[in-house]
Amino acid sequence: MSSCPPYAPFFGFGGVAAAMVLSTVGAAFGTSKSGIGIAGVGTFKPELIMKSLVPVVMSGIVAVYGLVVAVLIVGGIQPGDYSLYAGFVHLAAGLACGCTGMAAGYAIGLVGESCVRAYVYESKVFVTMVLVLIFGEVLGLYGLIVALIMNSRAAEARCI
Amino acid sequence: MSEHVAVSKVTAQTAEYSSALPKLLTFTLALAVGPISAYFLSEKFLWSGNSTYAAITAIVAANLVLVGYIITSMNEDNQTPVVTSQEKTESRKTR
């Protein structure tokens, strides 16, 4: 059994898809949930909308994490000299980034909606909201760091 | 008569918040274009092919866009209360 079977890129591209798709699911949840809160805020106090859009920008950044990992993994896949080890590494890296992005987007959505609604009544909630959102987004960053570390080891195996 | 008041209020509001739309479009474009171009450009020109460092550069660029947005939104909030209080006193006078 060769260590570079022809079906090895299946796992690599599975990692690419997982990174992009799952982090986008998280970012979509974060954007939509906080967008619902912003629509509620905007009917009462439209001047708060610019500040209330911070959760939406943070959800966008979670999607950017997934995009960067997807582009990074795609750069390392080639049709010929691609080991099964590298395929598994790329799959795990994509899953790590994508699932943590999903978690981060979920947290950003829930926090964004309720904090944006609370911001209408108490303006000091803004700093709290930004802090909690940063902690939520950092979850996606952890997944990205692990994905980067894993991806750097993908070129270790040689074809025999 | 109330229709005129409503129309003028909507146009006044859109004129007041039309400064928000270019800022939002700028940040949208920055977030869409910035990180991925930072990845490819830094991989080619800065890190001579090391894609891990290029990914880190892209993430730093994305977080810089976020910090810029937070700072811009906080600065805008310090400016708008002047305009809204003027508009409210004007609308009270016209009634």
Automatic annotation (TrEMBL), chain A:
Broad class of where this protein is predominantly found: membrane
InterPro entries: ATPase_proteolipid_c-like_dom (IPR002379), ATPase_proteolipid_csu (IPR000245), ATPase_proteolipid_su_C_euk (IPR011555), F/V-ATP_Csub_sf (IPR035921)
Annotated transmembrane regions: 7-29, 49-75, 82-106, 126-150
Pfam families noted in UniProt: ATP-synt_C (PF00137)
Residue span, V-ATPase proteolipid subunit C-like domain: 15-73, 91-150
GO annotation, cellular component aspect: fungal-type vacuole; proton-transporting V-type ATPase, V0 domain; vacuolar membrane
Keyword Lyase carried by entry: no
Membrane topology: Multi-pass membrane protein
Subcellular location: Vacuole membrane
A molecular function (GO) term: proton-transporting ATPase activity, rotational mechanism
Highest taxon in the source lineage: Eukaryota
UniProt keywords, alphabetically: Hydrogen ion transport, Ion transport, Membrane, Transmembrane, Transmembrane helix, Transport, Vacuole
Annotated family: Belongs to the V-ATPase proteolipid subunit family.
Oligomer status and interactors: V-ATPase is a heteromultimeric enzyme composed of a peripheral catalytic V1 complex (components A to H) attached to an integral membrane V0 proton pore complex (components: a, c, c', c'', d, e, f and VOA1). The decameric c-ring forms the proton-conducting pore, and is composed of eight proteolipid subunits c, one subunit c' and one subunit c''.
Function, as annotated: Proton-conducting pore forming subunit of the V0 complex of vacuolar(H+)-ATPase (V-ATPase), a multisubunit enzyme composed of a peripheral complex (V1) that hydrolyzes ATP and a membrane integral complex (V0) that translocates protons. V-ATPase is responsible for acidifying and maintaining the pH of intracellular compartments. Proton-conducting pore forming of the V0 complex of vacuolar(H+)-ATPase (V-ATPase), a multisubunit enzyme composed of a peripheral complex (V1) that hydrolyzes ATP and a membrane integral complex (V0) that translocates protons. V-ATPase is responsible for acidifying and maintaining the pH of intracellular compartments.
Protein name: V-type proton ATPase proteolipid subunit
Organism this protein belongs to: Cristinia sonorae
From TrEMBL, chain B:
UniProt-recorded name of the protein: Vacuolar ATPase assembly integral membrane protein VMA21
Pfam families the record matches: VMA21
Membrane-spanning ranges: 20-41, 53-71
Biological classification of the source: Eukaryota, Fungi, Dikarya, Basidiomycota, Agaricomycotina
InterPro entries: Vma21
One Gene Ontology cellular component: cytoplasmic vesicle
GO BP term (any one): vacuolar proton-transporting V-type ATPase complex assembly
Keywords attached to this entry: Cytoplasmic vesicle, Endoplasmic reticulum, Membrane, Transmembrane, Transmembrane helix
